[in-house]
Amino acid sequence: MTETFQALVVDKAEAFSVVIQPLTLEKLPAGEVLIRVAYSSVNYKDGLASIPNGNIVRNYPFIPGVDLSGTVVSSTDPRFQEGQSVIATGYGIGVSHYGGFSEYARIPAEWVMPLPEGLTLREAMIYGTAGYTAAMSIQALEAHGAVPDKGKVLVTGATGGVGGAAVAILAKKGYQVTASTGKADAADYLQTLGAAEVISREDVTGGSGKPLDKQLWQAAVDSVGGAPLAAMLSKITYGGSVAASGLTAGTAVATTVLPFILRGVSLLGIDSVACPMEQRIQIWDRMASDLKPEQLDNLVDREIAIAELPAALEDILKSNTRGRVLVRLS
Predict the structure, then answer these.
(1) What span, in angstroms and rounded, lies between the C-alpha atoms of 59 and 83?
(2) Fewest CB atoms less than 10 Å from the CB: which of 124, 186, 220, 318?
(3) Are 77 and 33 in contact (CB under 8 A)?
């Protein structure tokens, strides 16, 4: 095993810094499973972790990266064996516990799961936390009655990680997907993912402005929050639902109780961080089987090496990415 390895480290020792630097295994935090990381991915939360006022990281120095896939090097937990392919997402990874932007990671066994049959290590991180959040959202919508023949499903922030995966998964399941984006040149990309219709942000927020507007969509996967979430709630058909997981458009949602009490609309909160492992495994198994798009690779904006991470983190905060940025670590 190598004596040193490369990791992206954010620090506040003097001035705030984001630097690729060599580390030794002794610098990694406690955990039962040592993993040789194969891939990670760039998520919006990782971008926030790379800036001084992102309100993600509390203790420095720190290694961001909220997800990873790789191979077990050693484990003191009998559930995991040397050479086993595994993935780890959520919990404290990349937030309070050193994350996936590192050639090696030491992770608590309770946060690690075997790689599902039907996925490669690379495919698992094409999905990553964003894809898992999208799959959670779709499963929640299905549990509340969404089926392909009931009408259109809206996906907001469709060129982002969660949105793009949601478009591809819903299309795979036979839904008629309306993809909303603020990027005027994204229509062709979203259609390759399976979107039947591409609309602008203004098409979501526009309309009568009344608490109950024209009923347009049976359900929605919302990764932006704010004004778009408030507007879409007024346009969901009777008994429909919205799965909400994001806040890039803001945390305040100015709505009324009318969609809920007059149309029976459900607002479903999606938390991919603390989701119990039993549910996590069940959803990942679906991501490897019935939810898996035929062209999963279409979600990839680009694949980068660790040295390119600082620029990629800046890009995701500026919305200069389309789909998933995959980080190759071995």
Answers:
(1) 32
(2) 318
(3) yes
pLDDT in tens, 81-111: 999 999 999 999 999 999 999 999 999 999 9
Exposure string (b/e) for 239-248, b if CB count within 10 Å is 16 or more? ebbbbbbbee
Instruction: Give the pLDDT score at 2.
Output: 63
DSSP type of residue 151: -
| Torsion angle (degrees, nearest 10) of CA 242, 245, 248, 253 | 50
Angle CA(106)–CA(102)–CA(80) in degrees, nearest 5?
Answer: 30
Q: How far apart, in whole angstroms, are the C-alpha atoms of residue 3 and residue 210?
A: 63
Listing DSSP states for 260-320 in one string gives HHHS--EEEE---SS--HHHHHHHHHHHTTTT--TTGGGGEEEEEEGGGHHHHHHHHHTT-
- CA dist 123 to 19, 104, 130, Å? 27, 19, 13
Q: If the chain, 330 residues long, is cut into consecutive pieces of 10 residues, what is the mean pLDDT of each piece?
A: 88 92 96 98 95 93 98 98 97 96 98 98 97 97 97 96 97 98 92 96 90 96 96 97 93 95 98 95 97 94 97 93 94
Count how many residues are written for the chain.
330
What does the DSSP assignment read for 200-229? EHHHHH-S--SSS----EEEEEESS-HHHH
**Spatial separation of the C-alpha atoms in residues 308 and 287, rounded to whole Å:** 28
Predicted confidence at residue 1, as pLDDT, reads 58
Tell me the residue type at 157: G
3-state SS string for 11-38: ECCCCCEEEEEEECHHHCCCCCEEEEEE
Residue 248 vs residues 4, 95, 229, 316: alpha-carbon distances, Å: 37, 18, 11, 11
